[in-house]
Design goal:
Layout: E1 4-7, H1 18-30, H2 34-48, H3 57-67, H4 72-84, H5 99-106, E2 111-115, H6 123-129, E3 138-141, H7 149-157, E4 170-173
Parallel strand pairs: 1-2, 2-3
Antiparallel strand pairs: 3-4
Helix pairs in contact: 1-2, 1-3, 1-4, 2-3
Length: 196
């Protein structure tokens, strides 16, 4: 059986706190609470230093927002706003050095999948700009991890890493193994998914 490697996007293929800071900034603006951004920056610093038990940076911002009484709909709008500027000066990210040749080398021996909770709109242009979009055997967006990984891994074990499945997610099969892309739109509201 061909091995399968599943990559996340934020923090794995895309490095930098830009998207999380953009999320916090948008939440502060929409909640009309300028001090929220400063608290979020402090919480992120504590998390990075190992001094806070958040799951990740998005969890840090989301947990602070709950404590501050910021409504889930505001967080959804803020998250969408942060993803819309992904890769710009407002939410900068960089790819790891040597990403394209690394993925090309690994792809000769394994199926390579991307599985992220984030929507595809702003990620696909970055993958294309980094010359890695066509390296993947399957691109899966709005996955709803961790539970959303189950059908992806099941399909990979069946030997079809980009095949559609009966969950609400976005799937794109890639040209390394497939000739035509397949897309499925997300039926989950943003607040129902875990952040990337």
């Amino acid at each position: 059986m061909t091995p399968t490697i599943v990559f996340d996007f934020d923090g794995t293929l895309a490095l930098g706190a830009g998207p999380i800071l953009a999320y916090a900034r948008a939440a502060a603006r929409r909640a009309d609470d300028p001090a929220f951004f400063d608290r979020a920056v402090a919480a992120l610093a504590a998390f990075e230093a190992g001094e806070a038990a958040y799951r990740d940076g998005y969890d840090a911002v989301g947990s602070l927002a709950v404590e501050a009484g910021i409504d889930a709909s505001v967080l959804d709008e803020s998250y969408s706003a942060s993803r819309a500027v992904l890769g710009s000066a407002d939410a900068p990210v960089v790819a790891p050095a040597g990403l394209a040749p690394f993925l090309a080398r690994v792809g000769r021996h394994a199926q390579i999948l991307l599985a992220t909770n984030a929507p595809s709109d702003s990620i696909l242009p970055l993958l294309t700009a980094w010359d890695v979009a066509d390296t993947f055997d399957g691109l899966h967006f709005a996955v709803g991890k961790p539970e959303g990984l189950r059908p992806i891994l099941a399909r990979a074990l069946e030997g079809d890493p980009s095949s559609p499945w009966a969950t609400s997610s976005t799937s794109t099969s890639c040209p390394r193994w497939n000739s035509a892309p397949t897309r499925h739109s997300s039926a989950q509201p943003p607040h129902a998914r875990a952040r990337p």
